[in-house]
Specification:
The protein is of the alpha/beta class. The protein has 6 helices and 5 strands, in the order βαβαβαβαβαα. The chain has a 3-stranded parallel β-sheet with strand order 1-2-3, sandwiched between helices. The chain starts with a strand and ends with a helix. It binds coenzyme A (COA). Coenzyme A is lined by residues 7-10, 14, 16-17, 19-20, 36, 38-41, 76-77, 92, 94, 105, 108-109, 123, 127, 130-133.
């Protein structure tokens, strides 16, 4: 049985992430979505809330939801992968601009653990322009984010920014 890890900040999960999850399920038997604490970003949602938002989306995969597990992790991704007995990482690539960062991370991870392999899935043409950062900015300014995130995530964003203002 092939298990893969799809790691990310997921602040919050978008339809771009959902597209990658859907396609990752064709490549692995079991997918662990790993929501990271240590990302170098400053998320607006706490670690557990980000994971809860991902869990709520996973239901949309119907029968395939049983092949998905959502976990949080702190510390290094390679350690988390070892704890979960897998060395397969899955990442989404949107554009050439993602390549340098992703290439660097994949190389770093394989230096930290030579067994680690990163598989890149290219984002679909209808999601490749989506970024959590820009979605948050639009939500903060009261714009329509309904085509970028689920209604549940949109409601959480709205509530978050209502509290901020
Ligand atoms: N697929 C993936 N991301 C997509 C996407 C798609 N189809 N479409 C858009 N995106 C966006 C996301 O919305 C997000 O946007 P943002 O940068 O504006 O927030 C961005 O692409 C990718 O974010 P995300 O998928 O959440 O991942 P990340 O790059 O924040 O994840 C970790 C980074 C968690 C993998 C990395 O920091 C890590 O491994 N941390 C653990 C500590 C560690 O081991 N560090 C050393 C690593 S070498």
């Amino acid at each position: 049985m092939r298990t893969g890890i799809y790691p990310g900040t997921f602040d919050p999960i978008t339809v771009g992430h959902m597209d990658i999850i859907r396609r990752a399920l064709k490549v692995v038997d079991k997918l662990i979505i790993a929501v990271a604490l240590d990302t170098g970003k400053e998320p607006i949602f706490a670690l557990e809330e980000r994971a809860e938002l991902v869990r709520a989306e996973v239901a949309a995969f119907g029968a395939d939801a049983g092949r998905i597990e959502v976990k949080t992790f702190t510390g290094l991704l390679v350690d988390f992968a070892q704890e979960n007995s897998t060395s397969l990482l899955i990442r989404g690539l949107r554009a050439i601009s993602d390549f340098e960062y992703e290439f660097q991370m994949a190389c770093m991870n394989s230096r930290l653990d030579p067994a680690m392999e990163t598989v890149f899935l290219t984002a679909s043409e209808n999601t490749h322009f989506i970024s959590s950062r820009i979605v948050k900015q639009i939500a903060r300014l009261g714009g329509d984010i309904s085509s970028f995130v689920s209604p549940n995530v949109a409601a959480h964003l709205k509530a978050h920014f209502a509290g901020v203002h």
